[in-house]
Amino acid sequence: MDTGTLVMILIVALVVVVLLFLIRAAGVGRRRPRLRPLAAESRDRYVSEWGEIETKFVDAPEQAVREAEALVMSVLRERGHPLTERELPAEVQQAHKLAFSSRGDRTEGMRQGLLHYRAVMERMVGPEEQAKRDQSRREMA
Length: 141
Known about the structure:
6 helices
């Protein structure tokens, strides 16, 4: 084997290793967790608590963001979502990063973090319109 062939084999092996690393880091092939549905009472409680958190943000943004994170983790736990850092939804990771490690205007970072937590809450408990439809169906039955 000459030097050129050996170099080519090493380059191909290096490219394969880098691609495998990138695929693993991106989470490709990671299965999505099977989430349990929320009971109507739990959903209503989470929606109510979320409303209080958003109201609190004006006067105490840091406390509101901490409570938002705790509430999101609670709903994820109740639905059976894995809570390891690697398996948390990207929005939760981004929200934490924005809210707690923002440089400069911390309030803006916390506001952005709260918006990410809201997106997770809406996905985990469902939008309010869905809840209203579900409620009216229950009333009709």
